[in-house]
Amino acid sequence: MMGCAGKILRVNLSSGTISVEEPGEAFYRQYFGGTGFVAYYLLKELPKGIDPLGPENKVVFALGPLTGHPVAGAGRNSVGAKSPLTGGIGFSEAGGFWGAELKKAGFDAIIIEGKAEKPSYLWIHDGQAEIRDGSNIWGKTTGEVEDVIRAELGDDRIRVAQCGIAGENRVRYACVLNDITHAYGRSGIGAVMGSKNLKAVAVRGTQNMPVADPAKLQELARWMATDNKPNWEGMKDTGTAGGVVSLHASSALPTKNFRFGQFEGHQKISGQTMRDTVLVSRDNCYACPIFCKRVVKTGEPHNVNPRYGGPEYETIGSLGSTCGLDDLEAICKGNELCNAYGMDTISAGVTISFAMECYETGLLTKDDLDGLDARFGNAEAMLSLLEKIARRQGVGDVLAEGSLRAARKWGKGSEIYAMQVKGQEIPMHEPRLKMALGVGYALSPTGADHCHNVHDTAFVKSSSSYEDLGIGGGPIPAADLGERKIRILSQLLPNRHFGNCVGLCNFVGWGNDKTLELVRAATGWKSTIFELLKVGERALNLAKCFNLREGFTQKDDVLPKRFYEPFLTGPLTGVAPTPEQVEEAKRNYYAMVGWDRETGVPLRGKMKELDIEWALDAATG
Amino acid sequence: MMGCAGKILRVNLSSGTISVEEPGEAFYRQYFGGTGFVAYYLLKELPKGIDPLGPENKVVFALGPLTGHPVAGAGRNSVGAKSPLTGGIGFSEAGGFWGAELKKAGFDAIIIEGKAEKPSYLWIHDGQAEIRDGSNIWGKTTGEVEDVIRAELGDDRIRVAQCGIAGENRVRYACVLNDITHAYGRSGIGAVMGSKNLKAVAVRGTQNMPVADPAKLQELARWMATDNKPNWEGMKDTGTAGGVVSLHASSALPTKNFRFGQFEGHQKISGQTMRDTVLVSRDNCYACPIFCKRVVKTGEPHNVNPRYGGPEYETIGSLGSTCGLDDLEAICKGNELCNAYGMDTISAGVTISFAMECYETGLLTKDDLDGLDARFGNAEAMLSLLEKIARRQGVGDVLAEGSLRAARKWGKGSEIYAMQVKGQEIPMHEPRLKMALGVGYALSPTGADHCHNVHDTAFVKSSSSYEDLGIGGGPIPAADLGERKIRILSQLLPNRHFGNCVGLCNFVGWGNDKTLELVRAATGWKSTIFELLKVGERALNLAKCFNLREGFTQKDDVLPKRFYEPFLTGPLTGVAPTPEQVEEAKRNYYAMVGWDRETGVPLRGKMKELDIEWALDAATG
Lengths: 621, 621
Hints:
homodimer; alpha+beta; 6-stranded mixed sheet; 25 helices; 16 strands
């Protein structure tokens, strides 16, 4: 029996001071890690109302208790800051190898404060940390940066998390990338790194990790790799884009800025087509047998560089169907650009599709768009806009602000085409079909986000994802917002947030039982699923409190009006939630999770139950 | 994979109709059984404000999904009705063999309505049920009744639950007994049976029970019988009274109507002394290896009949130290009388100790007490009063009403000596030491009850009972009412109530993990601890709503004032909760469990979360 509590690195870039904190096991068990830690530190330490791109903001990288253990999905970890895109809490998760490396370097989290005088990077290795000059990596692509750092420090096994040129240029949806292809995509944390003159965090670790029951972890890893293979080999085969064709069939493939759910060119951009054409390899995260990551290569005209991986489904949707674009090689190029410059493909694509719709409806002209014929389906326009955004050149300087700010700048009613919640663009999942997911978009403290959300598709086929929480009644249709579904949402959201605290990938179907076994084996804690759900609920409430402090109200928990307009063709014809349904669902959710039904403010009793009354005081004091 | 859903028998004694209901698996999974079923049916079916002793009341016997499976502790099951003692919800649990027999007869619950014209009993055997003439068992002791029924029906393996002479006479704390020695002790359900002219429920079953994973159940049973033996063999050795000496040492042995926590004669009435003197055998419940039940025999003057078992700790305390009485043989006789006549030993003993204190302080005279010299320690007075109460003779007719009603009848300020909550007498656990238990007494919908409560002693030694629920901070002193302890209480109470829904004995230390395994193996449901706690919370909220409908408010959630008066001697000198501490703890509890902090009324959102909004409508509509 052993606990799990390690070291947290605190780096102040203004003063150059570096310190190590050991908050103790009780803290670890209360907040676990990942987004739990991120939300804790941001709420505790950030003053109200700071500029997300000013030196007062902090960037928090946080691993979970599972990070670095050799089990599938445990490559996942989190980064967060006050979001320059939403002005609320920002956090984002990525897989890869960087997290495991940081754990082996002896740290569970890094809190980065202040602003460096000049371009810098952080170098962490086996319990040591230093702030180094980053002049020679500033303005460089992610691949170049990785090369330079590894050469400078003389170790090819160094893992680099970095913000890219888009981050340097404070693109509000600049991402953080590790190993170039693993994106902490959402919330614009890359811009926060850029604003701090912090280009990268390079890590190398060779320390042994404490583990309570290594044999059990091995047994679980073996189960996932062998017994459970039938459940993930499809993901390996076609990647996350394997569902493009069926999404089109059910009218849930976001097309042309969410005006449609079906896309004529869907076959050309499917995971199957990618597998059979541009795919040259598959990639994985630390210890993961699934290899869901794509590696693609093309010849002329785009000459896509396989070093930058290949597009996820989110990228296929956002740079492809959402932009009305069926040119897979161009999408792959767009993916390369986003990974090379450090931009969230979802926000980039949906901001571009917003511009395209403004252009097609005549709200914008070629002159507004630097002469680009930015109609839906124009691959060159899409790629050109990505370049311009990353460098904030021409119209790219406007689009780098995200769709909501661009719409507010341009006016003319264009805001109705900005497909976003709280300023963050909508991911590639259709709220007209997946209605609880739509409510989840509205509710999420980070704005529209699929990693902090629950997919109704899980409800349609079986009740296995919530049956073990004691919510009966069998499968439930996607197009439903009744009380039972909201009850399911209210329990599965903490579950999802727990995954982001513990450091487990959503794509690896461990299930509740085995997740619990993983936690116990890694930490030695005698946890229960009850505890794990409370950890997730705690993290979610901390995030909610952060936003409350920043002035967010229930009025910010809204969906774009477009999702109340049913499609006029296809299998979803006439199907859409009504505003009243969504408002009622939202209020039922508030009530069920212990928040005031009308205002959405957490009740003090709920905070007492979760032992985080301090968070409500911080939010309202 | 199989579910768990059987048949519920409904018997209307007024009309003589008998029917069978099959509410389906979803109902079973929502409410599980035991007190969950009892609370459900009483809230759904009883009109507001009925006379508990009138024909509109209903008696509900309910098993749990584990009842009848061959594992330790699964002999436990519940009975309930509107309580004639409190006017609120009444339920009570017992072990024994009757529950398993009923399950094998094909039923999970019995709902008994109306009132028979003449003394009757119910005979249930393998899916059949009939109401039979009970004239020849009316007025008989429990032993006689069992003999007569078995002879009449020609089967010695028939199990009988019955109400006793005290129930016939509507003693407000008359219990229901099965197999003579297993008491559904609290809440006065025996009086409700008596008021219905229903003397007994005789059961015989030979059917096979469905079971999802018999091998797993066997494995768990074997673990309890062998590996876990060190944890229960002390209980087998000395029974529940094994702690008398240490309770005295810590000043927590209720003495002389709770005026003191230490009793000079404690050694004479300890479980160890019982073992070494009057004990002739040990008894068990269905499938239980622990044999915690005592069987005692004495010679003159009391000639205690071993057929009526032997005293539990609760009986040792209530008929012994609480009455200032160190005569173990007299206590054993009192136990025999209570089991023969069907009286709750706790309420009987504490009502007698109330009379004794009134006598010693001069509020009552010998004349008031039928000439008895009812000073503390007078065994003959105690035994004589038990006889009088059961038969409602002389002063027994007043004491049969319970201490609160007796105090109100006698007046003169005697109510301060009535050691009760909501009219039900306090069990043998000292709230001045075990402060959360004291708050639990105040909060319990059934009035002071140790089976619907949590013992602080679990907190003192280790945090194992709540660590797995994620409540950190290590062990916590018994004499503490801080927020952390109330958080523990707020989670352990649903846990305890779950035990009363599933049908597991508190004395068998299965722990959360193995309880979950038992549930899964018995039912085939893929449950989690989260679900099980929600089941307990649901049952507790139903019970709360029942009381709300009857007009109970937070003002009824109070402890007797005596517990705010510290002892003047012994190790607890000067230690007692203050009224303000208890009120604050109560309000913290309300808030943490999703009730209004001031009124204690469940919030609608909590009821939505638990999927029992109907219960709040029933309570407030």
